[in-house]
Specification:
This protein has 241 residues and is an alpha/beta fold. Helices cover 27% and strands 26% of the residues. The chain has a six-stranded mixed β-sheet with strand order 6-7-8-3-9-10, with helices on both faces. Strands 2-1-4-5 form a four-stranded antiparallel β-sheet, covered by helices on one side. The longest helix is centred in the last third of the chain and has 18 residues.
Length: 241
């Protein structure tokens, strides 16, 4: 019988990842020796209270900050030791970011906000294709002020994924939205993970969202633990809020 092929290596690997802000008596240890493997194509939820280290970990993985100690690899490339030019290319070509607040340019339409990204990307989809993935084809020519909060967040998601990132990092993407609107945003994130195969990390304090993920981690006092593995993640529509 033929041997099974070896599993693909993780897309992102962290080992003993530590981040300390300040020094001496004023030092704050935001991350304390985090180990993490993130395979391509997974949808991962990271739970934890404010101040637990979630956003610090997201910023390190996304190349927005660098660790004090430890190893952080993307496809074997050392993100932790990269220079600013390398980090800029990594953020531009590999990572898509979605934050709690949408950061859209008010004077540009939804399509034009996305075009800002596609014009500098190596292999982008069209703005209209990205808007279709988040269900906003008919809102392409609307300005942010003409869109609801949920629609603005979905435009922000479309902007993040228009460059076809391998890694999508979402920091409290529904934190400013009501439950019904938040579900539409989560459906868009789940669809992108399924249809494009983007490794997606969603940071939240809402434990209900754990049911939509392949794996769930919790953070407390800068330490990371695997909380659960879902063999069959649930569609967002089935989550009990």
């Amino acid at each position: 019988m033929a041997a099974s092929p070896p599993p693909d290596p993780p897309l992102v690997v962290a080992r003993d990842l530590t981040k300390t802000y300040g020094s001496g008596h004023a030092a704050v240890q935001a991350l304390r020796g985090v180990d993490l493997d993130l395979p391509a194509g997974e949808l991962v939820v990271l739970l934890g209270a404010s101040g637990s280290g979630k956003s610090t970990l997201l910023n390190l993985i996304g190349g927005l900050d660098q660790p004090t100690h430890g190893e952080l690899l993307y496809r074997g490339w050392d993100v932790a030791q990269a220079d600013e030019a390398g980090l800029t290319a990594y953020r531009r070509d590999v990572v898509g970011f979605v934050f709690q607040f949408y950061n859209l340019i008010a004077s540009l339409t939804a399509r034009e906000n996305i075009a800002l990204i596609t014009e500098v990307s190596r292999r982008p989809m069209s703005p209209d294709e990205a808007l279709d993935l988040v269900g906003l084809t008919n809102r392409a020519d609307h300005f942010p002020a003409q869109l609801s909060g949920g629609e603005q967040q979905r435009v922000a998601i479309a902007r993040a994924i228009a460059k076809r990132p391998e890694l999508l990092l979402c920091d409290e993407p529904t934190g400013a939205l009501d439950v019904k609107t938040g579900m539409l945003v989560l459906e868009a994130i789940q669809r992108i993970n399924r249809d494009i195969g983007t490794l997606t990390l969603v940071i939240t304090h809402n434990a209900v969202l754990a049911e939509m993920a392949d794996r769930v981690f919790t953070m407390s006092d800068g330490r990371l633990e695997l909380a659960r593995v879902n063999s069959h993640p649930r569609p967002v529509q089935e989550l009990s809020w």
